[in-house]
Amino acid sequence: MDLFNLSGNMLFAAFILYLIATLFFGATIREKRKKGNKKEVAGNIAITITILGFLAQLTYFFTRWMASGHAPLGNMFEFVTFLGMAMVLAFIIIYFIYRLGFLGLFALPIAMLIIAYASMFPSEVAPLVPSLNSYWLWIHVSTVAIGQGILFISFVAGLMYLIKEIDQTKRTKRNTWLEIVVYTLFLVIGFIVITSVFNVAGYKATFEYQDGTQIFETEYHLPAIAAPNNGVLVTDGVVEPLFEAPSWMQGEDAGRKFNTVIWSLLTGTLIYGITVLILRKRVAAAIQPLLRSVKADLLDEIMYRAVAIGFPVFTLGGLIFAAIWAQIAWGRFWGWDPKEVWALITWFFYAAFLHLRLSRGWHGEKSGWLAVIGFGIIMFNLIVVNLVLSGLHSYA
Amino acid sequence: MNKIKCECGHINPEGTVLCEACGKPIEGNQHIDGNDQKKLLNMRYEGSARRSQTYRRSFVDKVWSFFSSVKVGVWLIVIALVASTLGTLFPQQQFIPQNAISRDPAIYYEDQFGFIGKIYYLLGFHEMYSAWWYLLLLGLIGVSLVICSLDRFIPLYKALKIQKPRRHETFLNRQRLYSETEEVSDAEIEQVKEKLKKQRYRITEQNGHILAEKGRFSRWGPYVNHIGLIIILLAAILRTTPIMFTDEYVWVREGETLVIPGTKGEYYIENKKFHLDMHDPEDERFKDAIEKSGMVESNFQTDAVIYKDANEDVPGAEPELEHVLTESIQMNKPAKFDGYTLYQQGYQQNEFSSMTFKIHETADEEETAIDSFTIDLFNPESEYILDNGFRVAIDQYYPDYYLAEDGTPASETNYPRNPAFVLLVYPPDETEPEISFLGIGRNIDATGENDYKIAIQDFDTHYVSGLTLRVDHTLIFFGIGAAIFMIGVIQGMYWQHRRVWLHPKDDGVLLAAHTNKNWFGLSKDIEKAIEQTNIKMVEDRQELDK
């Protein structure tokens, strides 16, 4: 199992390297203001560390592949980790085109958030079910992830554009919506924090609940605020639930997932609240001055360019390769599976983005909002469709 | 047709915004592209005359301009998207799970999802993707694609073909990238030309006016990819015809040979053996995961032999099977023969093939077998004569037993999934039988006076393999469509159409440039080209919407 340990360590190393790189990208803000010979130094160090981190994560990926005998793209942990890596790769590519260090200051932390999110899922090497046992697994999944990673850069550039350009002097609809987007990121942080805390503490509570004629068991790793519908607590000496999940929430472990959502909301809101108390203004308003020296039209350009590069890759991986594999595995290249439909929706959305930009002249802020919503759809497809809606892609 | 003659001498079609040859804004038409509102010219489609923007009187004109609107196209797509999303809310009819209370959609949706489920069913969302309105929506998107493309492509193509290196001054000074330099030498101009050539620009000249252009083919990308999409839509419509597409499902038991539905009685399949393999729970790699979440299948496989009926043409003749193919059909490894493809799709494990019973004395607590017999559940005999003088007759056989509502035993299907028997046992030298009712978990002595009892001693089960047969002649069209689409998208997205104009004015030069995307890259090209010359770098005058 040495290879497996090495693999895990490399992933951890990558995470730390991304963190250090972020700090150096942060240092580029100061340098931009000073202007001098050293202008590029912090940026060069930062991108070098980013590349080292990427190589470490690549090592994680291939050693895990060697250890398990199949491409590590088979469950939520493996896919989301790879998505994080694809985001970093996309950032590196875009960095070498535009040399904008600020982008790293935003892109890397969010990519790290994604990797941290991944590690909340079981990380054991799981065997492949027969339907996944094909070389199309890595062709299809890696192409999709790389496409989404590039589209992620358009989200980052779009978000930066919005933070920079939207007036924060008084409260408006636009800066409220922007703040909601920022708040959503805090909810992800909330999920990661609370899950980690109780994982370290090793909290466990088991419920039994009835679904149809069968009795199921579900194990909570967070104290139960909401019990499963018709659930009975079997573990002694743990917190009693406050209420039951509503009965329309169906499916495997619906109660536990609902409980996790409540905890994430509470924790995320708390962290957000503390942040706002410290800053004494909207978070986006606090970030705004950092972006003073970045040119808005460059952000607009990056946002568009990332969609222009990422859209064909996403089409190839998410629709064409997906269809070819579906044809080989199930004999139908399209089956209106929720994941398929949402991939199509994502595709149409970005197609609309391009059309609105080219023929209706939607630049700047309008494009920025679209880039943010587009990535929201990708995340919806990853999180909600996989974990809540059932279908062929629910692996975790 | 009111042609418009420009001062450069070129005759433009009605509705032109910017002269096709020199780019001079044509008076009275500037509102069409909104140029009257802004300092910079709107360069999309080169300001060419689009039918949809020019003729709006007759019915045909109105239909044309309706469908040529991107707005309409986007709305059609949005409606299709919203509908498609709603369709994923609950499972589609064909995906209603096998173990549902009822697979009848009229019952299932309301039962499972309540009132919303009922509405879902009543509105036809349970089979939405083949509903007429859904197909119509796709058709309208197709029409919109064709008209949008033609409306833009033809005038754009002409305008780019006709364009002259010599441009009108107003055209140049209303470009996004623009600079004016007072004094420039011929040598410097030559140098710029050389450097642009090195960057693979194509240079054309007209009385000292220079046009450097590259990547024009990327402008055709959108039209190429739309052709791909139209082919895909056509293929989708073709696929609804049975000639192009067949889809059949067949259940075949181990050891059974069956005609394959959908092959017009021509092909037979024999299931030699079905394999259901599991990952080894002792496997070092997967131990932890299997311990945590249970056993995981590693392989579904049908060892099948495909036969062709040589007598298929002779009506009424017994089939004469000729071997075609021996294949292990697995997931991700379908069997192909003569245009047909067979996919491993499912399996059933819940059928019994034979059962062995023993007879013992009712009073014997040890239940020592006096005698035993085996019933082949597909081929039960009416009577079994046993070695020790017992005789057992099958009075009733229910392969798939259940108790009907009126309280009488019945069989739900003809498959031995839950076999039950009424057996008549004749002990040695007796003529009056003892009656026993036997099934899984049931052993009833009808009279309560039986001296001998029958018990299930052993049983064998077999797998039933589920295979899908597909014929899809439309695949090739989908493939071609997708390939053309990808070519078009890459052509349009990964290359850009860049143009640089040099316009001599007095002793100096006007420099302007345009690209359809990646202005950053174009600026870099210009920077390189004018290095070490007096020519001023272009200024980016983009007006961003706030």
Question: How many β-strands of chain B, per DSSP?
Answer: 24
Could you spell the SSE succession of chain A in H and E letters? HHHHHHEEEEEHHHHH
- Assembly annotation: heterodimer
The average pLDDT score of chain B comes to 87
Class by helix and strand content of chain A? mainly alpha
Main sheet of chain A?
Answer: 3 strands, antiparallel
Written description of the protein model:
The complex is a heterodimer of chains A (396) and B (546). By secondary structure, chain A is mostly helical. Chain A folds into 2 domains: 2-119 and 134-168 and 281-387, no CATH class; 169-280, no CATH class. Chain A is built from 11 helices and 5 strands. Chain A has helices at residues 2-34, 41-68, 76-98, 101-118, 136-165, 173-201, 254-279, 283-287, 296-330, 338-359, 364-387; strands at residues 205-211, 214-220, 226-227, 231-233, 243-244. The longest helix of chain A is centred in the last third of the chain and has 35 residues, at 296-330. The model of chain A has no long low-confidence stretch (mean pLDDT 88). With 546 residues, chain B is an alpha+beta fold. Chain B has helices at 51-54, 59-67, 70-87, 105-122, 132-162, 169-173, 186-198, 221-238, 287-293, 475-494, 519-530, and strands at 4-5, 11-12, 177-181, 202-206, 209-214, 245-253, 257-259, 267-278, 297-309, 321-330, 335-337, 340-361, 371-376, 383-385, 391-398, 401-403, 409-411, 420-426, 434-439, 442-445, 452-472, 498-505, 508-515, 539-540. In chain B, the strands form 6 sheets. In chain B, strands 4-5-22-23-3-24 form a 6-stranded antiparallel beta sheet. In chain B, strands 6, 11, 12, 13 and 21 form a 5-stranded antiparallel beta sheet that branches. Chains A and B meet through helix 9, helix 10 and helix 11 of A and helix 3, helix 9, strand 9, strand 12 and helix 10 of B.
